[in-house]
Amino acid sequence: MTTAQATLETPARVTRPGGKAPYLHQIDLFRLVTFACVILIHVVGATNYASDAGANAVETPLHFTREAFFALTGFVLVFQNRGREVAAGDFWRRRLPLVATPYLAWSMFFWAYGLVTGEQQPGSLEASMRLLLTDLVTGGAWYHLYFLLVTMQVYLLFPVLMKLLRATEGKHKWLLLGSGVAQVGVTLFMTYQPFGVSYETITHLYGTILPYQFYTLSGAVVAMHFETVHAWAGRHRLLLGGAFVAVLAGTEWYYFRTVHSGTFPQVASDPFQPYLIPWFLTVIAAIYAFATRWAARRREGSRGARLVSWAANRSFSIFLVHPLALALLGPAIPHVAERFGAPWLSVIIYLATIVLTVLIVEVLRRLPGSRALTGRPRLAPVKATA
């Protein structure tokens, strides 16, 4: 039996008792790859100048991470609930605290961290409190917290989304088409804002579901048609691999063309540039296809399976903590740059960020406030051996 046949017949999932949706091991690897790219794009941004065309060329394709996360969120929520009725109150009570609690905890932490380090200087206690309130409303306490704010919006809208998917059964392609047209409109508005619309207004849209609605809905629709889409991905891995290479090349070509025409590199690589939409869709599909191949060959209890499972269990915690680790490494960046230069600076800081992040996560996971700080339950403290 070929790998493709095995994947189609057994789509890398484990049936679970109690009527729960099957466990999809490929989602663990999808999550791991995406989080690794999140850390990479933040490190590249922290270790290079905004005017560096080469660094922005690396960042450009890595912007897929936010879209991949929201596609994954939509997929997981619908896949887990597609066979049962969703009671809004029960769903919100179960889901919202999982994100809201870490959001509040880390927003307050980074607000305080910014005051202590001088990153933010509001000038008075009243101004500080205003700043904290603004950060809580906008997700602006640190550069990654918008994701949690938007995730909470997805949770709030999820019961309505399920009703919409069921009401439009058989017409999901038209639902996606309308959402896609709206997505293009939103990105055009954010990239080429009309006269009279301030940049501040545009930046506030980052913390809303509007720029991510198409990807969330796409993940949700895929979950409703999981077996069909999964089988298609298994049969067309070579096609998706070829599309990945071709669209990546076209994306980079367009980026450099835009830079050479006079656009500032950081603007040309902005994550809401409309030309990136085909790339986002392609890379998400390609990573899923790659993950299904791995899942089909996965051996329970093997070193690779244990590593992916361990990392997936800590992925959300790593997401929450890695900006702190990168900030703590900030003072070392000039010294590393002086000794090693580019691109080794980014490589060294990337590896150091991963190591420091994991160390911090392992400590936090063993503290009484683990759920608030890492989004995961507390682990049993490591017992000392004689």
From TrEMBL:
<keyword id="KW-0012">Acyltransferase</keyword>
<feature type="transmembrane region" description="Helical">
    <location>
        <begin position="62"/>
        <end position="79"/>
    </location>
</feature>
<feature type="domain" description="Acyltransferase 3">
    <location>
        <begin position="25"/>
        <end position="361"/>
    </location>
</feature>
<protein>
    <submittedName>
        <fullName>Acyltransferase</fullName>
    </submittedName>
</protein>
<feature type="transmembrane region" description="Helical">
    <location>
        <begin position="29"/>
        <end position="50"/>
    </location>
</feature>
<keyword id="KW-1003">Cell membrane</keyword>
<feature type="transmembrane region" description="Helical">
    <location>
        <begin position="99"/>
        <end position="116"/>
    </location>
</feature>
<keyword id="KW-1133">Transmembrane helix</keyword>
<feature type="transmembrane region" description="Helical">
    <location>
        <begin position="343"/>
        <end position="364"/>
    </location>
</feature>
<dbReference type="GO" id="GO:0009246">
    <property type="term" value="P:enterobacterial common antigen biosynthetic process"/>
</dbReference>
<comment type="similarity">
    <text>Belongs to the acyltransferase 3 family.</text>
</comment>
<feature type="transmembrane region" description="Helical">
    <location>
        <begin position="316"/>
        <end position="337"/>
    </location>
</feature>
<keyword id="KW-0812">Transmembrane</keyword>
<feature type="transmembrane region" description="Helical">
    <location>
        <begin position="276"/>
        <end position="296"/>
    </location>
</feature>
<dbReference type="Pfam" id="PF01757">
    <property type="entry name" value="Acyl_transf_3"/>
</dbReference>
<feature type="transmembrane region" description="Helical">
    <location>
        <begin position="174"/>
        <end position="192"/>
    </location>
</feature>
<keyword id="KW-0808">Transferase</keyword>
<feature type="transmembrane region" description="Helical">
    <location>
        <begin position="141"/>
        <end position="162"/>
    </location>
</feature>
<dbReference type="GO" id="GO:0005886">
    <property type="term" value="C:plasma membrane"/>
</dbReference>
<feature type="transmembrane region" description="Helical">
    <location>
        <begin position="238"/>
        <end position="256"/>
    </location>
</feature>
<keyword id="KW-0472">Membrane</keyword>
<feature type="transmembrane region" description="Helical">
    <location>
        <begin position="204"/>
        <end position="226"/>
    </location>
</feature>
<dbReference type="InterPro" id="IPR002656">
    <property type="entry name" value="Acyl_transf_3_dom"/>
</dbReference>
<dbReference type="GO" id="GO:0016413">
    <property type="term" value="F:O-acetyltransferase activity"/>
</dbReference>
